[in-house]
Amino acid sequence: MQFNDQLDFVRQHIKKNKLRVFMTILAATMGTAFLIVLASVGFGIHDTMRKEILDNRVVNEIEVYSDQMDESMAEKLKKRDHVKAVVYRQSMNLDSKTALDGFTGSPPLIITDFKEEEKVGFALKEGRLPESSNEVVVGSHFAELLVKEGENPEEPVSYKEKLIGKQFTYQMGFYEEKELFPEETKFTIVGIAKEPAKDWLQDVNFYADATILPSLNQIYQAHNEDEESQLFYGNVKVYADKLENVTRVSTALKDEGFSVYSIADQLEQMDVFFLAFKAGLVFVGTIAILIASIGIFNTMTMAVTERTREIGVMKAIGASPKLIQRLFLMESAWIGILGTVIAVILSYGISFIANMVLPIIVSAALSEEDLGGVDVTFSIIPWQLVLIASAISITVAMISGWRPARKATKIDVIQALRQEL
Amino acid sequence: MIEVRELYHSFKIGKKGKEKEVPVLKGLNFAIQKGEIVSIVGRSGSGKSTLLHILAGFLTPDRGTIMVDGTMTTSFTESERAAFRLATYGFIFQNFQLMPGLTAFENVELPLKLSGVDRVSRKEKVKELLALVGLTDVQHHYPNELSGGQQQRVSIARALITDPPIIFADEPTGSLDSETEQDILLLIQSLNRARGITFVIITHDDTVAETANRIYRMHDGELKEGGVTHAI
Fold it and tell me: Using the beta-carbon criterion (under 8 Å), do B79 and A319 form an inter-chain contact?
């Protein structure tokens, strides 16, 4: 029998029992849609969390801690395999005061290597990078930290003028002492750093090159009595050349006794957790499909019982048992396929509505406008989920149809032909 | 054409464990020649229907062999039997056994579909046969819209559609009035003459049996040749 004729045959039989087949397809649709929507929540939450982690951090970044960290060690790290850049940022352990045109504030000073910073995306909004020890780049929100008293003493005014080319003074001092050191260091602003990727992050730092260190140290040592205390403390970030090398670099550093933390470790742990979580959701969803399969089994069993005489006639005139079995399996597969197709379309609709409506409901319930700035995706249906759900649904449909189909092949021709119409 | 040797068959009746074996066919030996119309006549319970079911491959005999054109059909698997039936046999049943959901055209077309014949060739062949049995006008009618005689003609057209060399007819006129019965029997005879098809007719009716060239009488599981006839 040609495939088209087999399809015709199946279609004719389905037409005869429209309502029953419709109800069975509905059950299969509901089961499959339940599985897809349920698992899509797992995919949605996973994606939201990944985005949250990745948005705030550079993926190939590895934070390295060591008691002996200094510039020479940072230099050594640069020479390792698969390392694109090593950013060694140093900050001060002191109180400070910055003054510009009568505006004052305490923006933190960060000593860094601009060449390395540039390699990992440090970019300027305006101006250029420092070329001498007293030139600095200021953070995008630097000016907001410089304030002076306005007309209303309770509402200080922040600096609004142009920054490039301006000179400001910088004083250091101990936190525990009232007065700062009298020595003033003059810095000239030559560049303004680009805003951080996240709207809610503010960069109020100002960045200077390591060549300023000796003069600052000199001031510090002049007032410091404790010879062992250090003016600066360092923070090293190693950047792997590729994402896939992050684990390799981070493992090698760990083996050498460094304390290491990378986003890849966090992502890996999270991915494992969500893999198990999503598998659990798919399992629960599969139970719904199994329940729907009882309907398919019933429909197909009734179809075989009702068509006993017809099957008998077909066998009598020469239909092979394999063909009979295939026709019934095709019928149950058709129910599964149609149920799956409708379920996939329905699930995308539900997912779209959920992503549109749920954030509104949740933020209303939490009395927050934007869920704390987090871009939450409640449901995502990737093609892999569609594939898994379709495979489960169609397989379950065919398994439910298998027994009735076998029963059909076992029908005794003589008994079947004796049946009345 | 058909050669039956030492054919035995029995049925088990009664409850499981206390079954009783009832012999139905007791060592039948006979042969049917190509192009013959052979009637197997007997009362109810004589075993004639069981014989037909075994000849057609619906039932496997306890013992004995059936050779059809040199092919031993008794050793076939179920799938082989089905394929052999489709290619070699046609069937005419007492209660027509048409598919109620298919039109006269589709019922006749069914064996060709099973054989995998393409749509265009099928259409041509079905039209030709419906014309032969005089049903062109009602080809799109469903079985319940046809008279008994018309239904049996559909059944005959369906039996002929694959050009089988052998047609088994089980009480072919059992559900028809005497006038229609004559029409059907004449149709069988003309098909036999025109196409050389071998007909094996199972009946309890002597009038029907006389259509045959040869009559076998079945009594209590045994078969006896009951004479040669030429026409009604």
Answer: no
Give A1's contacts in chain B (Cβ within 8 Å).
113-116
- Residue A84, domain member (yes or no): yes
C-alpha A92/C-alpha A191 separation (Å) is 21
Instruction: Please name which of A229, A213, A103, A227 lies closest in space to residue A156, comparing C-alpha atoms.
Output: A103
Give the bridge partners for A62, in sequence order. A238, A262
Asked if the C-beta of A102 comes within 8 angstroms of chain B's C-beta atoms, the answer is no
More confident residue, B80 or A69: B80
Task: Give me the domain span that covers residue A402.
Answer: 3-56+269-418
Domain final position from A198, A224, A241: A241
Answer yes or no: do B78 and A321 touch at CB < 8 A.
Answer: yes
Query: Using 50, 70 and 90 to split pLDDT, how confident is the model at A420?
Result: low
The answer, for A323 touching chain B at a CB cutoff of 8 Å, is yes
Task: Tell me the shortest Cα–Cα distance from B111 to chain A, in angstroms.
Answer: 7
Q: How do residues A126-174 score in pLDDT, each as one tens digit?
A: 899 999 889 999 999 998 888 887 777 777 888 888 889 999 999 998 8
Furthest CA-CA distance within chain A: 116
At A206 the pLDDT is 92
Same domain, A115 and A223: yes
Q: Say whether residue A229 is in contact with chain B using an 8 A CB cutoff.
A: no
* Nearest partner of B232 among B210, B204, B206, B203, judged by Cα: B210
Per the CB < 8 Å rule, is A5 touching B113?
yes
Report yes or no on whether pTM surpasses 0.80: no
CB contact under 8 A, A413 and B58: yes
CB within 8 Å: B83 and A318: yes
Distance from CA of B60 to the nearest CA of A (A): 12
Residues A328/A8, Cβ–Cβ less than 8 Å? no
Question: What is the ipTM score, two decimals?
Answer: 0.89
Cα–Cα distance measured from residue A406 to residue A344, given in angstroms and rounded to the nearest whole number = 30
Note the pLDDT of residue A210: 87
Q: Are residues A374 and A394 in the same domain?
A: yes
Is B99–A310 a contact, with Cβ atoms under 8 angstroms apart? yes
- Return the bridge partners of B95, or none: none
Q: Domains of chain B by range and CATH? A: 36-60+77-228 (3.40.50.300)
Min distance A419 CA to chain B CA atoms (Å)? 10
Which residues from chain A sit within 8 angstroms of residue B114, using beta carbons? 1, 314, 317-319, 323
The mean pLDDT of chain B is 86
Residues A122 and A213 in one domain: yes
By CA distance, what is B159's nearest residue in A?
A317
Checking if the pLDDT of A305 tops 70, the result is yes
Average pLDDT of chain A is 86
**Tokens representing residue A304 in the block:** 């075989």
Give me the pLDDT at residue A371, please. 62
Structural domain tally of chain A? 2
Amino acid A341: pLDDT: 95
Residue from A28, A40, A14 nearest A393 by CA: A28
Q: Is the pLDDT of residue B232 over 50?
A: no
